[in-house]
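Tokens as discussed.
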């Protein structure tokens, strides 16, 4: 199995795989910057991602710039986001909130009553922005923040992070690109200040560093990330020396020990943002922009700390992880529905139709027929099954003293090393019955496959009640031995647990 589909630990974030859903503004929020039923379903459908990073979410009314974008600054919004996180967690997913303050980007028609555009300096952004009320409008002239006001804006990020935790998010990410407020402080053409927040690269990076520090103070640095794209000119920002600017930013963030750095490929042909990030950031990285499945596989194989985020591919493919893993075609989407109200082009994309596997019957004493089962291809994944008490009891009954699932979290946490075992025969029975594992064959005259070798199948972490498990298999070899026929299966098991997810490959030897 490719490393792309293996679990990964990013600080305090446990990812079931390394396929990350990138943040994407989709403009479906209700009035009052409220998440709604559509958004609950949208994120639930995509919970197969190892990690979901939400669309940019405003930390305050001043932070809103676009129409129909959500906020996280009042109790009603927190309660609405809680429905989203509950839906994602019910599917075994992980989700972090991206905090996005638009700063000078936006028009008064999109802002809540009384909100204002703020920026490091009073420099209006070039271009226009869409509004539902009046069509395309010029960006507002922003208020230049006084030095005494900056602490209050930083506190908005702190409160947003605290609200994210109250809403059930697994972590937070600071949006520090695309020409929004943190990047407006970083960029030379939007930051004309002469105080401690302007001038040198270290001073221009101060605002973003303090915003991350404020978020990490309430969430924990091991659940906090930051997204950057050095050299991105979007929304009229200019940086003549991104290496100096982002070098100062990453140096200032280094003592925190963040969960991850989310870095977007730079549009500057002379600047390799990924290589720059590797040299200047020691932690886990999420790489973004322009990846397909093959490129993502290569990226994560090149370095164990890498994950890859997909944006456009997640629009039309809510089951993107399954499609990439099984080599299934990717669905397209209609660009005209990217930002339009309603479910069209948002939650109406069906999952891929998985190929059906026809079960064959062979006799254990028909060696030629048995050998015909050998395949280079895995069978399709079984349906995920929620681990409950009944399943625990069955594992315990079949495994004897080798308990695979722990009901006592404290006992599991004290285990050293974090390894448990299950007899192979019990595993095969569970896969065939409860999981309905499509083993592609049925051996006539062989009752329960309870005979097994002395080896044990090991998981790297305990699996607890509420976990989800699925798997697949293929026949690797068939040979005649003294006791009869020996059948070797390769099992690929994937568990998303309450603690850390786990995935294993192992060989199961059956004697018939």
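Sequence:
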């Amino acid at each position: 199995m490719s490393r792309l589909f293996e679990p990964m630990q990013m600080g305090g974030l446990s990812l079931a795989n390394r396929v990350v859903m990138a943040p994407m503004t989709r403009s479906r929020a209700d009035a009052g910057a409220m998440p709604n039923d559509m958004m609950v379903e949208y994120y639930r459908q995509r919970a197969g991602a190892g990690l979901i990073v939400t669309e940019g979410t405003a930390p305050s009314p001043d932070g809103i710039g676009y129409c129909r974008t959500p906020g996280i600054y009042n109790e009603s919004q927190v309660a609405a986001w809680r429905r989203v996180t509950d839906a994602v967690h019910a599917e075994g997913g992980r989700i972090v909130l991206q905090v996005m303050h638009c700063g000078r980007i936006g028009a008064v028609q999109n802002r809540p009553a009384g909100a204002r555009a703020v920026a490091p300096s009073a420099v209006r952004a070039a271009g226009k922005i869409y509004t539902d009320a009046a069509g395309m409008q010029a960006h507002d002239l922003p208020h230049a923040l006084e030095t005494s006001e900056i602490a209050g804006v930083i506190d908005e990020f702190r409160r947003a992070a605290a609200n994210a935790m109250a809403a059930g998010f697994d972590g937070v990410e600071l949006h520090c690109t695309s020409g929004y407020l943190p990047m407006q402080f970083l960029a030379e053409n939007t930051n004309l200040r002469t105080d401690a927040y302007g001038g040198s690269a270290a001073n221009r990076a101060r605002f973003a560093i303090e915003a991350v520090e404020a978020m990490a103070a309430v969430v924990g640095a091991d659940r906090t990330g930051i997204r950057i794209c050095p050299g991105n000119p979007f929304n009229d920002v200019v940086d003549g020396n991104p290496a100096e600017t982002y070098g100062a930013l990453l140096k200032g963030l280094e003592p925190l020990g963040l969960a991850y750095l989310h870095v977007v490929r730079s549009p500057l042909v002379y600047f390799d943002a990924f290589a720059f990030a590797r040299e200047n950031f020691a932690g886990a990285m999420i790489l973004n922009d322009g990846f397909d499945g093959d490129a993502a596989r290569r990226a994560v194989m090149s370095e164990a700390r890498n994950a890859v985020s997909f944006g456009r591919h997640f629009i039309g493919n809510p089951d993107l992880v399954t499609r990439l893993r099984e080599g299934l075609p990717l669905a397209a989407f209609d660009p005209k529905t990217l930002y339009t109200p309603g479910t069209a082009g948002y939650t109406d994309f069906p999952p891929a139709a998985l190929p059906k596997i026809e079960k064959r019957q062979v006799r254990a004493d028909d060696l030629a027929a048995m050998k015909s089962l050998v395949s280079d291809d895995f069978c399709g994944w079984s349906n995920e099954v929620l681990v409950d008490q009944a399943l625990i009891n069955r594992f315990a009954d079949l495994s004897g003293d080798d308990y695979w699932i722990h009901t006592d979290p404290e006992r599991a946490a004290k285990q050293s090393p974090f390894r448990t075992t299950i007899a192979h025969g019990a595993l095969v029975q569970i896969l065939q019955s409860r999981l309905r594992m499509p083993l592609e064959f049925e051996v006539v005259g062989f009752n329960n496959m309870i005979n097994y070798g002395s080896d044990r199948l090991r998981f790297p972490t305990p699996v607890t009640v509420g976990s989800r498990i699925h798997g697949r298999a293929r026949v690797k070899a068939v040979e005649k031995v003294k006791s009869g026929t020996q059948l070797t299966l390769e099992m690929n098991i994937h568990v998303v647990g309450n603690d850390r997810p786990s995935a294993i490959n192992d060989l199961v030897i059956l004697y018939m």
